[in-house]
Write a structure and sequence with these properties.
The chain contains five helices and no strands. By secondary structure, the protein is mainly α. It folds into two domains: 66 residues; 64 residues, no CATH class. The termini are far apart.
Length: 161
Amino acid sequence: MAAPRVPAAPRGGADVWAGLFWLAVSLGVVWAGRDLGIGEVAAPGSGFLLFWAGLMMSGFSLAILWTAVTAGGPGLAALWAGARWQKVVLTVASLAAYAALLDRLGFLLATIPLMLVLLRGIDPVRWRIALPVAALSTVGLWWVLKRLLLIQLPAGAFGIG
């Protein structure tokens, strides 16, 4: 009597598509780094970091592809199972509104409401925690960017920031 046949793990699926996507992105990064000029280790060119980072990304994506093809994995639909679409839409809409209002309101007045929406809407945090975290993290980031790193941030119509 023959041993029962065990079905093979499905090949392909989500990991194969992810590996192919990141391989394409990494090859684009390698290409961009090569176009900018790699230079040498002693005198690196503008594309040195891009080129080598792209090669590392290529290696990682090939490892994902190899694992997906040899071991199988979940299907593409498994990526979206259990997704909380309302929170995804809220995040995308918040970031779009932030991008639209950043120049008009300025960094400080636009970032604090964004942080509040994200803290309260995505994974709700009590107001007692959300208000100081939004204000202090925004002001702290503003101070680092504006004062320490001397990066010009939008001040908005009110000139705050």
